[in-house]
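USER: Note each token:
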Amino acid sequence: MAFQFALLGKSNLYGRILIFVLFILITVLLSSESSFLLGEPVLGPKIGGSIFSILQIGFLLYSIQLLKALGPVSKNIIRFLYIYAIVGAVVGLYIANPFVEIFDIFTRRYLYILFHIINTGLFLLISFYILRDIFASKATHSDHIWGALVAYLLTIFVFGDIYEIITLIKPGLLGQVYEMGWPNYLQCVMYSMNAMSGIDSAYPDSHSLLKKIAILEYMIGNLFLVVILGRLLSHPLKK
């Protein structure tokens, strides 16, 4: 499998990562509306959390191969990410599922916080290598455009994890208390999507702290588009 991954170019890796990211966002969207779609609020998040964990494996494996292609990256980081991909999937399918209570609430809360801190670092690491590759080149290639799309979408998950960490520490800041684990996280990702879009908030009762962070996210998203478009348009496109 590793040999097959190694044969893929950067554009192919970006394309596969985008597919996983988009399916994750669709899973989040559908899970957040399970009451409307399925007539009850429990089954949707349960299924959605399992699908999310499976998609996360694919996202992480292709991201590891992308980091190798964009490198150099420390072998210890790569080993850690492989382990994290497997452990994270197990956590998502069993421990993080609110319907399978292996640990008490106190332990789970701090496991989730640790999980999302690592997630935030991972997304920032991937974005760093992507942006370094884009700005280090004197020409624009098609894979740079794909990479910019990946980095932009990863911003949604970076802030989604930040909102999740905050609401784990202080539940209810989204306007109501959601079940710890996937149900709360999917609301945080939806909140982040809402903030990046710049439209009226779907969470009008959220705490002012989250609203201020959402404004920051919206500004960063707009600045990213301005800077990345300026970079891509200022250099000739080469295939």
